[in-house]
Specification:
Length: about 600
């Protein structure tokens, strides 16, 4: 047999029910059988001895019946009590067996061969009949076999007659046979129980799978409906600024620029606002898609929280003041552990949302240390949120009191993005709000350890300063004509001397046949995707080789969210600027390359 075949059946509620269910009837049958055996010895054994044994035998059986009835009244036995009831089975089995064993000493008539043979056959039948019942708990079977055959074998050996020696040997062999039969039966019981449990588990798994399928179908239907609403809203929010942009551009084209510069300024400002609105919408959608696709990987590090708070003050103080609000930012010396850029985005979205929905009063950023973490909170004295609205405020495009999709009230992506980012960073974003009394958004950031803080200080001490250049000539390598023209115009407006090319071959040719070679290229602005199978990273390497020096370069791409692009840019040591290009970020790059 394999080890698995020797595994005894588990003593569970079903096994206990089997062991106790037939106890009363088995006890009664045993008493009747004991009485008939005693009748065979009535001429050879004193009546008093026989009667005393029968009374004791009946008492043991009575106790067994009482125990069975007590188990029946208990009904559902807790798991922690099953072992106790199992021990009582062993005790009562041994008590009943010893009652039979004692009977073999009382009913002793060595010269009455018929009675002796009847006694041995009767006890063998008793033990064999217990196999199917007691195999559910092998310790009980072992106690029963030893309790019956042990005293009987000793009795036969002490009688010392050839017949009784043979009977003693047969008792030993029968005991071994019963034990092996009990083990085999126990294995069958265990196997049947395991199969039954597998079937139950399979049925449960099928039920779970059916439930999961049903839930998946419901989720898919809900997602489809949500996607339809989402696309309808996106279509509206994209068409609005696009429509305004077309009209404004047409008006600007036919406006008398020389005689009415104020009108031109007004139109260009409106166009810039439309472009900014479309850029914010596209960037928000791209960020949500990256979060949903789980392609955004946090890069945690230790950083001083006060720097992030100062950044919030610089970004939102003027906006808050313009709306007549008081922006209160706490001071903190805490150093926290996390992705600074992503945490800044979460905090900025929460502050922006608070300012937008606070007509008067304050917006406050707090930091409170609690149980090894730092709780950041953004409080406001704004309009508050009704309790019925709270479950939906983190849905994309969900805005309270803005059914007309007024862009001045935001796009409805800020809180959705903040929630997804907080989930990604495990910040446990929560909200409490009372209608008409303001709201409070909270998140938890881990505090940096002492080792992290030391490494942060050493890194700050060793950080190199920006390298400045001695010229202002920039090479723009961009295959899209409109984007290239826009970059050239923007850089030229900042006073840069721009050399432009649509592909790598043209750029290399310009460097080779430049009319003024003494004016070297000071910086490169290169698109990632270029015609002819080239990419921006390889193009920058070849241009630098042609220039003979490692000119500072900025990689511009619409695929900045892709992990492989980020990794390749980081490996090449190239800063990455996503499209649509933020003019201030481009200006920051250009300014960093100017002479100090």
């Amino acid at each position: 047999m394999t080890p698995a075949e020797h595994t005894p059946p588990k003593l569970d509620s079903q096994a206990l029910d089997t062991l106790y269910r037939g106890a009363p009837m088995a006890a009664l049958v045993g008493v009747v059988e004991a009485f008939f055996l005693s009748v065979l010895f009535w001429r050879d054994v004193p009546a008093a001895s026989t009667a005393l044994w029968l009374v004791a035998f009946a008492a043991v059986r009575g106790l067994r019946i009482c125990l069975g009835l007590a188990y029946g009244r208990a009904r559902a036995v807790p798991t922690q009590q099953q072992a106790l009831w199992g021990r009582w089975v062993v005790v009562t089995a041994l008590a009943q067996a010893l009652a039979w064993g004692a009977g073999s000493w009382v009913l002793l008539a060595p010269h009455n061969v018929v009675a002796e043979m009847a006694l041995h056959i009767g006890l063998a039948a008793v033990v064999l009949g217990s196999v199917a019942h007691l195999s559910h708990h092998l310790p009980a079977l072992a106690a029963y076999v030893i309790g019956v055959f042990g005293p009987l074998t000793v009795r036969d050996v002490l009688v010392g007659q050839p017949l009784h020696y043979a009977l003693a040997l047969s008792s030993i062999l029968l005991a071994l046979y019963v034990w092996r039969s009990g083990q085999a039966h126990a294995h069958t019981i265990a196997k049947d129980s395991a199969q039954r449990q597998e079937k139950v588990a399979l049925i449960h798994a099928l039920q779970q799978e059916n439930e999961a399928t049903r839930q998946a179908r419901a989720d898919a239907e809900a997602a489809h409906a949500s996607k339809a609403r989402f696309l309808a809203t996106v279509s509206h929010d994209l068409h609005q600024p696009l429509n305004a942009l077309g009209l404004l551009t047409h008006t600007l084209r036919h406006a008398p620029t020389a005689s009415n510069p104020e009108k031109v300024q007004e139109l260009t400002s409106a166009i810039a606002e439309c472009v900014s609105s479309m850029g914010a919408l596209v960037e928000g959608l791209l960020e949500l898609s990256r979060l949903d696709a789980r392609t955004l990987t946090p890069r945690p590090s230790a950083f001083a929280l006060q720097g992030l708070f100062d950044e919030m003050t610089g970004n939102f103080a003027a906006v808050a003041q313009q709306r007549g609000l008081e922006l209160q930012v706490a001071s903190t010396a805490a150093t926290v552990w996390g992705d600074r850029a992503l945490l800044a985005r979460v905090l900025a979205n929460l502050v922006s949302n608070a300012i937008r929905y606070t007509p008067a009063g304050f917006v406050r950023i707090d930091a409170t240390q609690r149980d090894g973490t730092l709780q950041l909170s953004v409080h406001d004295s704004g309009v508050g949120i009704d309790a019925a609205e709270l479950p939906r405020i983190f849905d994309e495009y969900y805005q309270i009191d803005n059914p007309q999709r007024n862009r001045s009230q935001g796009l409805g992506l800020g809180l959705a993005t903040a929630k997804r980012l907080s989930d990604l960073l495990a910040l446990d974003l929560s909200v409490q709000s009372t209608l008409g009394q303001g709201s409070s958004f909270s998140l938890c950031v881990p505090l940096a350890t002492a080792t992290d803080t030391t490494a942060l200080q050493e890194h700050a001490a060793e950080s190199p300063t920006c390298v400045s250049l001695s010229g202002g000539r920039i090479l723009v390598l961009e295959d899209d004509a409109d984007s290239r023209r826009a970059l050239r115009g923007l850089l030229a407006a900042w006073g840069c001397d721009v050399v432009e090319a649509a592909d790598l071959a043209t750029a290399l040719a310009l460097l080779t046949h430049a009319e003024t070679p003494e004016r070297s290229i000071n910086a490169l602005v290169v698109d990632m995707r270029l015609p002819g199978g080239d990419d921006g990273i390889a193009a920058i390497a070849r241009i630098r080789h042609a220039l003979g020096h490692a000119a500072p370069a900025l990689l511009v791409t619409a695929d900045a969210h892709q992990a492989d692009v980020k990794l390749r840019a980081a490996a090449a040591g190239l800063p990455l600027l996503p499209k649509p290009v933020a003019p201030m970020k481009l200006r920051a790059f250009v300014q960093s390359q100017q002479p100090g």
